[in-house]
Amino acid sequence: MATPADRSAKFIGRFVNKIDEKGRTFLPARLKPLIYARWGHRPDLVLAVMGYDRCLVLVDRERWFENRARLDDLDWMDRDASRLRRLSSLAEEVTVDRQDRMTIPTFLRNFAQLGDEVMFVGCEDYIELWSPGNAEHDLEELLKDAGDVIARVRGRSEKLASEAAAEGDVG
Structure pTM? Predict the structure, then answer.
């Protein structure tokens, strides 16, 4: 397992690469040094369905399992919790070969509607993989709703900060 060297490396930008007949694609040249800086050389990665968009998320294995561990505290009898856990069946561990390629499994290519191209979208601490057409459509929708999205996220952040401050006052 690769050891991350620099968690401050951030993934930004959008890059389109070809997918060959075996489902392999090269890591984008501009993302490759960041991937290796953040996740180590020849990293252990997880490629998974995001759950709410027709894209895939690429993240290091350690972070994937840290994030999934949060589900351990949820009641397995709860329908929504069970459905969230089921998303793990739509994940696959992937490796990067000596030629800096990774194979996107067929079921994940089908889910993300990938043809012979994939768009890598840097999302700071993880990478999304989209079909180029779906990525452009999603970007158009995001730009229409950007103000509302920012307000909702800012509101959630402020609520979490005030709850954390309240907990600090109690203890």
Answer: 0.78
